[in-house]
Design a protein that fits this description.
Blueprint lengths: L3 H17 L2 E4 L6 E5 L13 H5 L11 E5 L2 H11 L5 E5 L4 E5 L13 E6 L4 H8 L5 E2 H10 L4 E3 L2 H13 L4 E7 L5 E7 L7 E7 L2 E7 L7 E13 L2 E8 L2 H19 L4 E3 L8
Parallel strand pairs: 3-6, 4-15
Antiparallel strand pairs: 1-2, 4-5, 5-6, 7-14, 8-12, 9-10, 10-11, 12-13, 13-14
Helix pairs in contact: 5-6
């Protein structure tokens, strides 16, 4: 019968031998081992421990800068890139996500890199752009249309703000009248004839002229100094309940594409690297 004490001693010897046989293999030009091997006796299990990760919180600084900074204006994004970017950094503009992403620690000259330190410019449409787009193609009552013009007077180019405010006041004044006919004037405006009935008095006729289109100028995104000209073509319909108006923004997608191209062009002129069109890749996945 085997001696239990001798068996236990042999087990300890085998474990010590396994530890003694541990070998580390250094990667070329590196000080930290790339692979560690060890012989483990039967009945024992080798546990893996990421020593570097475990000790990192106790170091004076992390092994590398990593993480994603998300900002909403170009000045902040350029300031962050100026602090952390290098000629090896990569920048991608994703029009579908309305983002510009800088991979600050990107691979250089084919050498691998983590690519896990990023700066993202998350674009948000301006209040003016959102306001004009929200009513694009929608029928509006006179009062609603008048309020929209009053709220957006800073965006008006032609006719000017004073003329459009006067038109808005006319919309308020003619609410509830009966529109009878319309005609096109020599300058392209549309003139409406209406009948205003006052209780106890004979009906009074009047006229209301509106332009066929207006030109506006609005910033596309918040925190981005790109302003685009746009044309809104007026549409109208005379209904028993009153005059209904709406507008259609001309070539909205083309305007947005031109603004996007202008933004990427300005960034390319400022940065030491080009801005590539598309989604930023993941190097640390």
């Amino acid at each position: 019968m085997p001696d239990p004490t001798a068996t236990a001693h042999q087990t300890l010897i085998d474990a010590g031998t396994a530890l003694a046989d541990a070998e580390s293999h250094l990667a070329d030009g590196e000080n930290q081992p790339e692979v560690i091997t060890a012989v483990v006796p039967n009945g024992y299990e080798l546990k893996a421990l990421d020593v570097a990760a475990a000790l990192e919180p106790y170091q004076a600084a992390p092994r590398r800068v990593r993480g994603t900074a998300t900002v909403t204006d170009t000045a902040s994004w350029l300031a962050y890139f100026g602090k952390h970017g290098t000629p090896a950094s990569e920048v991608f503009g994703d029009v579908t996500a309305s983002t510009v992403t800088a991979i600050l620690n990107a691979p250089e000259s084919g050498d691998p890199a983590w690519g896990d330190h990023r700066a993202v410019l998350q674009l948000q449409h301006s209040a003016a752009w959102a306001a004009w787009c929200s009513h694009d193609g929608q029928w509006l009552a006179q009062t609603t249309f008048a309020e929209h013009l009053e709220d957006r007077t800073p965006d008006l180019v032609e006719p000017d703000a004073a003329s459009m405010l006067e038109l808005a006041q006319s919309f308020h004044a003619t609410t509830g009248v009966k529109f009878e006919s319309s005609s096109r004037l020599a300058d392209g405006q549309r003139r409406f004839t209406y009948l205003e009935t006052v209780e106890g008095k004979a009906g009074q006729r009047g006229e209301l002229s509106i332009p066929t289109q207006i030109r506006i100028q609005v910033p596309v995104w918040r925190g981005v100094a790109i302003v685009v000209p746009m044309t809104a073509r007026f549409r109208y319909r005379v209904q028993p309940e009153g005059l209904r108006l709406w507008y259609v923004l001309d070539r909205l997608e083309d305007v947005l594409d031109a603004a996007w191209a202008s933004l990427l062009g300005e960034l390319t002129d400022t940065l030491p690297v080009p801005v590539l069109a598309g989604r930023a890749p993941r190097y640390d996945a």
